[in-house]
């Protein structure tokens, strides 16, 4: 179904941008968080936490919407969905609004799982949130899914939300876009979109993504 921007979303879906573990050198305690823009994998910059921040802002704008966090994989067996959920609650989102989707392992399966949730719960409108660089590939997955989605699907890049909240972020984002890591990510995403359209898309294996710089 085509996007209808007049509908308030029944669910705001945060796609995972990778998580990392941090160990306190004093206590040895380990905490988990989403990636920053300074962190990346073999395909370029990540910036997963920006997605969480944007979703928290949208949660205020749409107080009746569920928040869906995504992703099975994460360090030490702690799912990306669980890490995102913890970050959302820390940003003020009520835990009872959060649905953790802990089965997906990549962008394609995150999109598929979100569409499945929408069908199971009879949602009318769903908003998919990610970094701007990833939105074209997410849209391509939705448009090339088997059978039309059972709800309208909207797409929201995190950076537009963060710039609206804090105009100074625009300068940060402009600097980021000029980096080699960001340009590398854009090139990888463009190849992905072309492969989806051609029917030849193959998701990278996790071992091929693990060249993560943190």
From TrEMBL:
Gene3D superfamilies: HUPs
Matching CDD domains: YdcF-like
Pfam families xrefs: DUF218
GO cellular component terms listed in the entry, alphabetical order: plasma membrane
All residue ranges annotated as the DUF218 domain in the record: 10-152
InterPro entries referenced in this protein's UniProt entry, alphabetically: Cell_Envelope_Assoc, DUF218, Rossmann-like_a/b/a_fold
PANTHER family: DUF218 DOMAIN-CONTAINING PROTEIN (PTHR30336:SF20), INNER MEMBRANE PROTEIN, PROBABLE PERMEASE (PTHR30336)
Protein name: DUF218 domain-containing protein
Native organism: Candidatus Kaiserbacteria bacterium CG10_big_fil_rev_8_21_14_0_10_56_12
